[in-house]
Structures are given as structure tokens and as C-alpha cells.
Amino acid sequence: MLQPSSPVLRSSSHSPSSAFTDIQAKTDVQPPCSAKVIDADENLLFPDAVSLGRALGCPPDLKLKSLAIVGNTGDGKSHTLNHAFCGGRDVFVTSASQNTCTLGVWAAYEPERGYLLLDTEGLLGACTNPNRQRRLLLKVFAVADVLIYRTMSDRLHSDMFTFLADASDAFVEHFRPELENLAQRSQLPWSSSQLGPAVVIFQETQHTEPLDSDPSSPSTGDSGVNSKCASFLAERFASLQRSADAFSCLRYVGVRTHDPPTDFSTLVRTVEGLMKDTTVRVPRRLSHIFQMLASLNEHFATEIPATSANTFVQEYFTCPAKCMSCQARCRLGVNHLREGLAHECRTAMGDGCQYNPSLQNKVYYCK
């Protein structure tokens, strides 16, 4: 069982309008104020929705929609939330340092739009367990209504498509069944076979033109993007033999920035349109969102190795032959048989092999 620890809070200097005075009276802070919800080790930092709502300045019974953002480290995820949805206020931490400034998952309540904003740790950063980090981000996918994949790459990388496909598969095969079971146990507003979040790929380029995202171009299917963008994204997923069918829709927003600041207007309009759409996801209480996140975080909390068993060198430069009994790989390099060297087992490592009666791999010693 994951034990909640002390949460980390960060407030902004923004003074909200009088329309939210009644909300603030029930809480300890004035929104928007960010708080760390889950740390980098997947520990939930709040015991219940009431304490989370108090930290965010949001009553737990208030209905809202959740907006999450993911992407590689250093691509400006926190900056995007601050300037696109928080009026430029320093709600989420940003830094010019090489060190990662966002660890785990942070949340903030944006009262003017009624959004629950979720900021996440960047991919490809200096984390102790990248696999655990990816699992945490996939959990955020499951609870978000709209998710932004932020990239500042001049060209869309394959790792983005792989990550989105992984998120789609994880939602269908693991998260959706668990959320359906949770809904049956606790009467949460969740329908069977519900689609995943709407995903917006937000690409900011400097030296290349973004994909054609002219709204006047004809749309293709339910993807909400014009035919050129839809075809390009579909071809990239197909080239990896993957798909993102679990998402309710997949949008693309591209902007080329010659001189700062970044123009977030198209991104904001796209996200606001998706957030207003209630055909797939309706606003949910903060307590329901917290319960979903807590359930997924507790259910999928097994130990996970930090790295794969074999490095690239071990996988592709070491002889692929394996022992038929213990499955240990040969310790020599590839093509060593051409040099007249037999396979070398791991007995020199001191742990020996495993006895298999069907193979009769006994070793006899003189007494």
C-alpha cells in the first residue's frame, strides 16, 4: 500500500475575481495554486480528495474537466500551461537550469475556465527509473479529458508515436477495465467501452514549417484534423505497426516561432473546443478524478526494473546463443565460431547452471 506523504504546494500571486470568493472561503489557498500530487516514486501525496481540494483551492464536489500535458524534458510543458491557460502567471515551476524542475505529477485548479491542470515530469530526463516514469504518465493519460503532447522538435520523432501508441494500448487493455470495475464498486460516472482522452499534438518549430493545420482544409473522419495532417499521422503510426485508436480524437496544432514569445492562441482555441465537448467526457467532480487516479496508482504499483535486462551492446554485439537449460547467453562476441572458439558459458561467473532432467546436464565429480 502506498502511503501518502507531505504534499508540496506552490501558490501564484494572482488574485481571483469575486465570483470565486465562495470557493476560496472553503479552502486554504487562492487558486490557481499548484501542488505535487504524485512523486517520482509513484507515491500519492494526498490521503483524500478533501485535502487535495484544500491545497488547490477547489471544493472536492466541484465538477470540472482535466487537462494534462506530457512531452520530453525541456520542451516547455510547465511554461505552456502557465502562459496558455494561467494568463502568464508562475503557477507551475519553470527553470533555465539543466536539471529537471518538474518531478512526478503536479496539479492546479484554474477557476476561470474550470480546468484541473496536470503537469508531468518530462520524458528522456535524468530519472532513476524511466520505466516507472512512463507508467506514471500512462496513468495520467487515463484520467485526463484532454491531453497535450508538447514537442519543440523541428520534426516529429518516432518516440512520440511509440509513446502515444503505448498509451492507447495501456488504456484499452489495462486502465479502462480497472476504471469500469471501480465505477461498479463506487458508482463513479464511467460508462463501459468509454474512449480515452482527446489528444492534441502541439509542435513548435523554429527552422521547419509545421504540418498544414489550416482549419479551412477538409477534415478526415472524426480525427478533427485536415486530411494532410491526418494522413501524415496515420502513416507514421502505420510505419511502426501501431495505432492510437483508443483516443476519442487526435488533433494537431503546429506553430513556427521565429522570435519569442510563442503564439498559443491556436492551441488554446483547440483545447477549449475539446473541453466544451461533452459527447465523450462530461465534467466530473474533483473527488471522482482523485478516486480514479488513486485507484489506478494503487492497482498498478508493482516493482518495475529501471532498465532492460540487456543493453544495446549486449543485445546486438554479443553472441545470441543461449543455454537450453538456464537461458544464459554466450559471453563471447558474435561470429566467434568463425575464429574456432566454442560457446562460452557463464560457469566462470560462479552461479552455475540449472539442472534439467530432460537434458541430463549432470556434472560428475570423482570422490
UniProtKB/TrEMBL annotation:
Domain of life: Eukaryota
GO terms of molecular function: 1-phosphatidylinositol binding; phosphatidylinositol-3,4,5-trisphosphate binding; phosphatidylinositol-3,4-bisphosphate binding; phosphatidylinositol-3-phosphate binding
Gene3D superfamilies in UniProt: P-loop containing nucleotide triphosphate hydrolases (3.40.50.300)
A GO CC term attached to the entry: lipid droplet
Biological process according to GO: lipid droplet formation
Name of the featured protein: Guanylate-binding protein N-terminal domain-containing protein
Naturally occurring in which organism (per UniProt): Dibothriocephalus latus (Fish tapeworm)
Organism lineage string: Eukaryota, Metazoa, Spiralia, Lophotrochozoa, Platyhelminthes
